[in-house]
Design a protein that fits this description.
The complex is a heterodimer. By secondary structure, chain A is an all-beta fold. Chain A contains no helices and 10 strands. By secondary structure, chain B is mainly β. In chain B, about 0% of the residues lie in helices and about 50% in strands. In chain B, a hairpin with a 3-residue loop joins strand 9 and strand 10. Classes of the chains: A mainly beta, B mainly beta.
Amino acid sequence: SYELTQPSSVSVSPGQTARITCSRDELAKQYARWFQQKPGQAPVLVMYKDSERPSGIPERFSGSSSGTTVTLTISGAQVEDEAEYYCFSAVDNNRGVFGGGTKLTVL
Amino acid sequence: EVQLVESGGGLVQPGGSLRLSCAASGFIFSRYWMTWVRQAPGKGLEWVANIKQDGSEKYYMDSVKGRFTISRDNAKNSLYLQMNSLRADDTAVYYCVAYNTYWGQGTLVTVSS
């Protein structure tokens, strides 16, 4: 089955660059999306098509893709960026799959 | 402004049924794939099912096939999830998602005796 693998946690100090990876277990055929979820809230889209940033998302969020790995980068992470981050991809254009989530700590 | 409002969650015994609804507004509902995603307490996001714009294609995660049915009513801008033969491991917050982009606030389903 298709899987997306993320580190369980990433920790940075405020102002540092946070990188969260998402590894796909086969050569990428579909773009990835990234969702940010803060405690008690619904997820919010922060990146689509691997590296496209939705309107309203700060410029410090960027995305990239290389081979079977997509990366969400937060340049100059802020305390308010502390959240759980999930990568997501479609499978065969129909079903979807989420990564296990990465808890980003900024302190 | 896109709004997705889920309803229908609650406490149900194992083996029971529930029907979730999602009322959509702020966008042309009939133009988008719609999805249900769930999140068990303290766990990650789990894709459950999706449905094509006209309802002609539906896809499910393996563990709910044959028990859950996704449907939509474009005239009412509404998405549904009929859940039968519920099990304890179906306990989760269920989210309605539009175009893999916009999320509702979720409705909690608790399966317990």
